[in-house]
Design brief:
CATH class of the domain at 317-437: Alpha Beta
Radius of gyration: 22 Å
Strand content: 15-25%
Structural class: alpha+beta
Helix content: 25-40%
Number of helices: 15
Largest sheet: 9 strands, mixed
CATH architecture of the domain at 317-437: 2-Layer Sandwich
Distance between the termini: 30 Å
Shape: globular
Length: 439
């Protein structure tokens, strides 16, 4: 894996831009020449005011996402090397503090210093929705995914006992799981033995296998997870937990996912990015060198995936909604069923790739509706299930598209008129406008 750099640029209007790259000199040139992100392209000239070097690009990426959540004053303290001021500056919602040892060439690692001076450390991850490419994302289809405003936090407080005192809170602040675990071996101490505790033990033990130094001391922790959405909404209760624990353990979240829940990993990418992304699994032979793009960086976490921040902000977004079907769907079951398909999917993947690209550049609601209906028909043919519109809303005049595993969780609704009255009449009361869902 290539080295990585985190950098902060000062733009002509005095604003700061934080990014990460595998080639710092080239990336700064691109920004200066107007080939970087939209923010810098419209605020030239730019000046490099801070950077850190990491042994791995994924470490640089995590650091970038942490700094992006900081206030201006906190960024300026970092730029000026006033590390002693950092703990006293308020933590932003998206601060992602890691307790790792330094990967940078600095003599003083600001993250480590912050950790030593903080009683609480909080990690945050975004929820997810997959707009295109469901199922076929596993076979390398180009997919459009969006992080949601609803996410999950993980708060860590050090204690003097060698155990984890775990509490999981729902969106109303009510505890839905509580238990105690031995910190050194991650076994149940005082917790009910059920699917939740067993799964949590599995995740933490895999994290220890990936980083033997994780939880390898005399201290324990009070751990509190807090959901920003109801557990049955399907916005990423598991993926946000995986990403938060990976940050805590200083390990690769994709690797933790692969060794626990499995899946394509798009939900981990949504947990980490604060903008819509395209996501594509690739063969390791395809990507041998770092790749740069004028529209924004494609970050290579490893040689398995390409992720690109995109500007998906349709002019007709006020006509888009997310409807909750109130039928919690186990995505693992849907994936297992899909994998039983032995037919050649290359043509379907090519069609989905084109639909994804067209959706991102779509300018009218009518064209958007035709694209999502075409997408529904392609997936319907593959998994041998009727589209949700045919099953439940055949008389609806707008467009409807399943998201993720078909048959449950949220669906996407495109309608010229506000469809709330229609769906409430049919007994579906949770319908969220696009702008209220998307980060």
């Amino acid at each position: 894996m290539h080295k990585g750099y985190v950098y902060i640029l000062e733009c002509s209007d005095g604003s700061y831009y934080t990014g990460s790259t595998v080639d710092l000199e080239l990336r700064i040139q691109q920004h200066q020449n107007g080939l970087g992100a939209n923010h810098t392209r419209n605020r030239l000239p730019i000046k490099l005011v801070y950077f850190e070097e990491f042994e791995r690009i994924d470490k640089a990426f995590y650091r970038e996402k942490q700094i992006q959540g900081w206030s201006r004053k906190k960024k300026e303290a970092l730029i000026e090397n006033n590390f002693e001021k950092l703990p006293n500056l308020s933590l932003a919602y998206r601060d992602k503090v890691s307790s790792r040892t330094s990967d940078t060439k600095s003599t003083l690692d600001p993250i480590s210093k912050m950790t030593k001076n903080l009683n609480h450390i909080t990690f945050n991850s975004n929820g997810k929705l997959l707009l295109t490419g469901e199922y076929l994302v596993l076979n390398g289809a180009l997919s459009l995914a969006i992080p949601t405003k609803y996410g999950q936090s993980l708060e860590i407080e050090s204690i003097n006992e060698s155990k984890l005192i775990w509490k999981s809170l729902d969106e109303k602040g009510n505890a839905w799981f509580e238990g105690e675990f031995l910190a050194d071996k991650i076994t149940t101490s005082q917790a009910p033995r059920n699917d939740v505790s067993d799964r949590l033990i599995q995740i933490l033990n895999v994290a220890k296998q990936l980083n033997p130094n994780f939880l390898n001391n005399q201290n324990g922790f009070n751990v509190t997870t807090s959901l920003g959405f109801p557990r049955d909404w399907g916005l990423g209760t598991s993926s946000t937990l995986i990403n938060n624990i990976a940050q805590w353990a200083n390990i690769d979240a994709y690797e933790l996912l692969e060794n626990t829940f499995g899946g394509s990993g798009y939900d981990i990418a949504c947990a980490q990015y604060n903008k819509p992304i395209t996501y594509k699994l690739i063969n390791s032979e395809v990507l041998k060198q770092p790749f740069h793009c004028a529209q924004g960086d494609i970050i290579k976490h490893d040689e398995k995936r390409l992720i690109k921040e995109v500007n998906f902000n349709p002019s007709f977004k006020d006509h888009l909604y997310f409807l909750y079907l109130n039928k919690k769907q186990n995505s693992r079951d849907g994936i297992a069923q899909f994998k039983n398909n032995t037919s050649d999917l290359s043509e379907s993947i090519s069609q989905i790739n084109n639909i994804t690209k067209s959706i991102m550049s779509c300018e009218t609601l009518d064209i958007f509706i035709s694209l999502i209906e075409k997408h529904e028909n392609i997936i319907s043919e593959i998994i041998k299930e009727k589209p949700v519109k045919d099953l439940l809303f055949s008389d609806f005049s707008g467009g409807i598209k399943s998201l993720g595993a078909w048959g449950g969780d949220f669906i996407l609704v495109a309608s010229k008129d506000n469809p709330k009255a229609y769906f409430k009449k049919k007994g579906f009361n949770t319908i969220i406008p696009f702008r209220d869902m998307i980060l």
